[in-house]
Design a protein that fits this description.
By secondary structure, the protein is mostly helical. The protein has 2 domains: 67 residues, no CATH class; 229 residues, no CATH class. The protein is 80% helix and 0% strand. It has 13 helices and no strands. The chain is elongated. The protein starts with a helix and ends with a helix. This is Putative membrane protein SpoIIM required for sporulation. Keywords: Membrane, Transmembrane, Transmembrane helix. InterPro entries: SpoIIM-like. Pfam families: SpoIIM (PF01944).
């Protein structure tokens, strides 16, 4: 369809939206969905045209009106966790995959480097940590480092540090994703060297059953935070039909939502590391905790977003959830 025909067919409806605002939530929702359809069509066939910019502004105006007329307390929080964050994770699924692949590659670099250089582990983990762990191994408790301080102090320090690392990975995305990749590489190499250190001493299985009680959530969250940083970097590198500044604002907003969504994960990981990892648990208990953590991460950040975005849960969505789905589908998050 030619742009002139598209404009002629839809102008009366757009003018109605502007001239006769409504306070009815259902009508607002219908108008918003119709506008996002128009905006999507315009972006596809008339990118960069004035009508596309007009529709983008009109959609944003209606979006503000829609959300101003809805309760923003518990309902807003519930919507964020049930719809906005999962749909955002689906929209950025490729950045999440890239972050995971990069972290995995860094892990193997750390493992192989430690295997071929006797000094590498000390270089990465520090002489103090290595010497203390060697003493703990001689005393029959190789992971006694997790018992070296009080649970409460450890919980606060670990949780704060993990959240700091996540925000660092996010913020450094401003350097065209290079800073984020450095954070992922540093943590991946450290983990690879750490695990090889125990493998070399025949303690790999014991270390996995101990460390990954909290590490499953902690490492997964760092990778997802890396995804948030890549979202920021990607917004600068590939602005698409937006101006680079507008694309950067969108990318920063999306990345910040992801990082904020990780805070409860880091809190739970800190709790496990401070209060549970230090315990001597049967193997099946450790495996159960690790398995449940992995299932949660896989379900909430991968499987559920996919099902939600593809409409398999559409029957369960209230109006606000449907709006979130439409916003995701049209790229207006």
């Amino acid at each position: 369809m030619k742009e002139a025909v598209f404009v002629k067919q839809n102008t009366p409806r757009w003018e109605t939206y502007e001239s006769t605002p409504t306070q009815d939530p259902d009508e607002l929702t219908e108008r918003f969905i119709a506008l996002t359809d128009d905006l999507s069509y315009a972006r596809t066939f008339y990118p960069g045209s004035r009508i596309t910019h007009y529709l983008n502004g009109l959609t944003a105006q209606l979006h503000r009106q829609l959300y101003r007329n809805q309760r923003e307390d518990r309902s807003r929080i519930k919507t964020f966790w049930r719809y906005e964050l999962p749909l955002l994770m689906y929209a950025e699924r490729w950045r999440l995959l890239y972050a995971l692949l990069f972290f995995t590659a860094a892990f193997f670099i750390g493992w192989v480097s430690a295997a071929h250089d006797d000094t590498f582990v000390r270089l990465i983990l520090g002489d103090g940590y290595v010497n203390q762990t060697l003493r703990n191994i001689e005393q029959g408790d190789p992971l006694a480092v997790y018992k070296s301080s009080s649970s409460a102090d450890m919980f606060l320090a670990i949780t704060f540090n993990n959240i700091r690392v996540a925000f660092l990975a996010f913020v450094l995305g401003i350097f065209l994703s290079a800073g984020t990749m450095m954070v992922l590489m540093q943590n991946g190499i450290m983990l690879g060297a750490f695990q090889y250190f125990f493998h070399e001493r025949g303690l790999l299985a014991a270390s996995i059953l101990k460390i990954w009680i909290h590490g499953t959530l902690e490492i997964s969250a760092i990778v997802i935070a890396g995804c948030a940083g890549l979202v920021v970097g990607n917004s600068l590198l590939f602005p698409g039909t937006y101006t680079r500044l507008h694309s950067f604002r969108r990318g920063t907003q999306a990345g910040l939502k992801i990082v904020v969504g990780l805070v409860p994960v880091f809190v739970l990981a800190g709790f496990l590391e401070s209060f549970v990892t230090r315990l001597t648990l049967p193997g099946w208990v450790s495996v159960s905790i690790i398995g449940l953590s992995a299932v949660f991460i896989g379900w909430y950040f991968v499987v559920y977003p996919r099902r939600l975005a593809r409409g398999t849960l559409d029957h369960a969505l209230p109006n606000r959830g449907k709006v979130a789905v439409e916003r995701h589908a049209q790229g207006t998050f």
